[in-house]
Specification:
about 80 residues; mainly alpha; 434 Repressor (Amino-terminal Domain)
Length: about 80
């Protein structure tokens, strides 16, 4: 399943993860792991990715820190009065 890194890469015109890995000077494996959501880029790699993908650092890092709880409205338990 593609994640936000894959979408950013494709929007920037890079067709394959290998092409992006070559430009970023990282292993293909590292790129595949980031696109799969298994690894997060280091801050310095995030800067390079933001420049290559023509996006912000927030576009690179914020989705890694978003949880399902952040995306859904959470209800507080009802208070009992007795």
């Amino acid at each position: 399943m593609a994640n936000h890194i894959t979408e950013l890469r494709k929007k920037s015109g890079l067709e394959t993860a290998k092409e992006a890995a070559d430009k970023l000077k990282i292993s293909d494996s590292m790129m595949y792991q980031m696109e799969g959501g298994y690894k997060q880029p280091s801050p310095s790699l995030g800067i390079k990715m933001a420049e290559l993908f023509n996006c912000t650092l927030e576009d690179i890092f914020l989705p890694f820190n978003t949880t399902i709880g952040d995306k859904t409205e959470q209800k507080l338990p009802e208070r009992r009065t007795s």
